[in-house]
Design brief:
The protein is mainly alpha-helical. The chain contains 32 helices and 16 strands. A 3-stranded mixed beta sheet has the order 2-3-6. It comes from Theropithecus gelada.
Length: 724
């Protein structure tokens, strides 16, 4: 690898015999850019702000004005200056002295408060079925409450917490070069903690390190000991005792029982009274043992922790309940169109139950369950938006899509990420970044030496392509709007021109704005909620306009002025209806649909610029692993053995995806996560039905899709969005 990069240091990009460069598209940087910085101008982009529509006060008050001026700090870098003492002995014992000075707040009288809570008191007084009034003595119920509470938590032991923090600090310094934390993001969390309300942190659990890094980081920044919710089935009884003394929380097994079980009634009441303190040493010893076995003998690595902007849960609840409108299920929205029974897309939003259904969630009212699901969408959208894109994701994307000029395209893709308001987690010399990225991907690529000291980087077939596809999926949130728009255009052109037709032939066709809106809506409804990350307060038609604007901004679509139509840029003559002018913020569904008639005369063409065909293909390929997995899942319907449990049918589908990958080379689709996503989407679409049985819920094939004809219609509907 060093030979290739050093050999090219003083050379210019080679051109093909016809005089054109062999890259897929011109990056605009050439080979002059030797260093990459995560800045656009003077400042780096700020990511992860809360929703301005649902939490406007938090959006304003909990934002640090000088956040772009603040840099990063390493939370595991502890020196003499981090303690109150000075001297040569302090420099050698700074880790131990630092752990002794950490603030550990005293444990409050939580058991008494939980016993006095409304839910538990209702059970004690017998006002709830299954309470003390139905044959149970109040004293026995109180003892049961104490037992359940003892299973959930224990008073943290300050000595054990400090001792464990000291050992963890030493271990993290052996494992990492640094653990970076943005000072501005931490300032916002500290400002929210100073308000006096309980602080709840939700993690996306990207790695095993979350359970030890996050609590340690927050403890080191003066936020005290956090409490982490932990599944009691994941560790031994002895480990549970230790973790409870370190601040761990364990849900009792009765909390996940069905709602009609009297055993789980009291446990759920205690859990609801004890919830607010989420967050700490989640299975720390097991994680440490695993990390030491994997990385204990290898070179140290770097890590980075991202924190989204905090917001007030009380403010969100008040504003979210006031803007709820009517929604329909995916089956109601999309199934008639898939089967050809109608062509018009209903003018309503999609409601998808993609959150796990557990006992504590089912114990809530239907309105509160809906609130939890929509809150999850907001939290997930903010967490994904705050995560920085790493160099391995960019390199995996370039290798997966067979780019030829890694240096130039790596620079171009980095700039495009920054231009879209996302952050990158790397900087430095361009060639050093490529060397480092390829060294991290060495298990999934092959390096072939060719003439003049160059190296050819080839992805390894099989699991290597699957892993590259997983890494490249980190770029999907960055280009998601453009990717949805490109696949929608592909679906619009599918019935008009051959898929392999020249770009010039496709550019001749006129695409109406209403047709584009319809295709975008269809694809948007098909995509899973956790991938689309559409906020519940955002209208689908607003998202359609955003997608169309992105396609115009990136140069893929150009407006075509037809004779007698109003110019697309003539904003002075645009008429806004009174409904739109007086519509509450965030509710544009009706007004947008009322004004669709004005868009009937607006048409677009595909741009004929030289970079557009390859950029269009790049955007389509970002969604192709998911869409191909959905299409193969539709083709598998007539082969699958149903009825079956959800895990059993998931395993059947995954084996089919693996077999198809061996035959067709589509290894990027052979992912168990894609199989799960396809089954969940088909269940919401009404293709699969979940029926109760004595052995548990089982999946059945819907009578509507029992016929081979309707299965083929479903597969054709999905494949129209796939660009070969």
């Amino acid at each position: 690898m060093a030979t290739m990069l050093e050999g090219r240091r003083q050379t210019q990009p080679r051109s093909s015999p016809s005089g054109r460069e062999t890259s897929l598209w011109s990056s605009g940087f050439g080979m002059k850019l030797e260093a990459i910085t995560p800045f656009l101008g003077k400042y780096r982009p700020f990511v992860g702000r809360c929703c301005q529509t649902c939490t406007p006060k938090s959006w304003e008050s909990l934002f640090h004005r000088s956040i772009t001026d603040l840099g990063f700090c390493s939370v595991i870098l502890v020196k003499e200056e981090n303690t109150r003492f000075r001297g040569w002995l302090v420099r050698r014992l700074c880790y131990f002295l630092w752990s002794l000075e950490q603030h550990i707040p005293p444990c409050q009288d939580a058991p008494q408060k939980i016993v006095e809570s409304t839910g538990v008191q209702n059970l004690l007084s017998g006002r709830v079925p299954g309470g003390a009034g139905e044959g149970q003595a109040p004293d026995l119920v109180k003892k049961e409450v104490q037992r359940i509470l003892g299973h959930i938590q224990a008073s943290p032991r300050p000595f054990l917490v400090r001792l464990f923090s000291w050992a963890l600090l030493r271990f993290l310094n052996c494992l990492f070069l640094n653990v970076q934390l943005h000072k501005g993001q931490m300032k916002m969390v500290q400002k929210a903690a100073q308000a006096g309300s309980p602080l709840v942190l939700l993690s996306t659990h990207k790695t095993l390190l979350d359970g030890i890094l996050l609590p340690f980081m927050l403890l080191s920044q003066g936020l005290g000991v956090l409490r982490v919710a932990w599944d009691s089935r994941a560790c031994s009884p002895a480990l549970r005792v230790l973790l409870r003394k370190l601040g761990g929380l364990f849900l009792p097994p009765e909390a996940n029982l069905s709602l009609d079980s009297s055993e789980g009634l009291l446990a759920r009441a205690v859990v609801q009274a004890a919830s607010a303190p989420l967050g700490l040493w989640t299975g720390a010893l097991a994680v440490l043992r695993s990390l030491w076995s994997h990385w204990g003998c290898s070179r140290r690595i770097c890590s980075r922790v991202h924190l989204a902007q905090p917001f007030s849960l009380q403010e969100y609840i008040v504003s979210a309940r006031s803007c709820w409108g009517g929604r329909q299920t995916l089956e109601q929205l999309l199934q008639p169109i898939v089967l050809g029974q109608c062509t018009a897309v209903p003018d309503t939003e999609k409601e998808q139950e993609w959150t796990p259904v557990t006992g504590p969630l089912l114990a809530l009212k239907e309105e509160d369950q809906l609130l939890v699901r929509r809150l999850s969408c907001h939290v997930l959208s903010a967490s994904v938006g705050s995560a920085a894109v790493m160099s391995t994701a960019i390199m995996a994307t370039l290798l997966l899509f067979k780019h030829q000029k890694l240096l130039g395209e790596f620079s171009w893709l980095t700039e495009e990420i920054l231009l879209r308001g996302f952050d990158v987690g790397f900087s430095g010399q361009l060639r050093s970044l490529l060397k480092h990225s390829l060294s991290l991907l060495r298990a999934h690529v092959a390096l072939l030496r060719i003439r003049q000291g160059d190296l050819l980087v080839v992805p390894r077939p099989g699991p290597g392509l699957t892993q590259l596809a997983r890494l490249s999926a980190e770029l999907l949130p960055v280009f998601l709007s453009e990717a949805v728009g490109a696949c929608a255009v592909r679906g619009l052109l599918a019935g008009r021109v051959p898929p392999q037709g020249p770009w010039e032939l496709q550019g001749i066709l006129l695409l109406s704005q209403n047709e584009l809106y319809r295709q975008i809506l269809l694809l948007m409804h098909l995509l899973p909620q956790d991938l689309l990350l559409l906020k519940p307060c955002q209208s689908s038609y607003c998202y359609c306009q955003e997608v169309l604007d992105r396609l115009i901004q990136c140069g893929l679509l150009v407006a075509e002025e037809t004779p007698g139509s109003r110019s697309a840029c003539d904003t002075g003559r645009q008429r806004l209806s009174r409904k739109l002018l007086w519509k509450p913020s965030g509710d544009f569904t009706d007004s947008d649909s009322d004004d669709f008639e004005e868009a009937e005369g607006r048409y677009f063409r595909l741009s004929q610029q030289s970079h557009c065909p390859d950029f269009f293909l790049f955007l389509c390929r970002l969604l192709s692993p998911l869409l191909k997995a959905f299409a193969q899942a539709a083709a598998f319907l007539h082969q699958g053995q149903l009825p079956d449990t959800e895990p059993g049918y998931t395993e059947q589908l995954f084996q089919f995806l693996q077999a198809t990958a061996q035959e067709e080379g589509t290894f990027e689709c052979a992912d168990p996560k894609l199989a799960i996503s396809a089954i969940w989407t088909f269940r919401d679409l009404g293709v699969l039905q979940q029926m109760p049985s004595p052995a548990g819920p089982r999946l059945h094939l819907s009578p509507t899709f029992a016929s081979r004809e309707n299965q083929q219609k479903l597969e054709q509907f999905i494949r129209q969005f796939i660009c070969s």
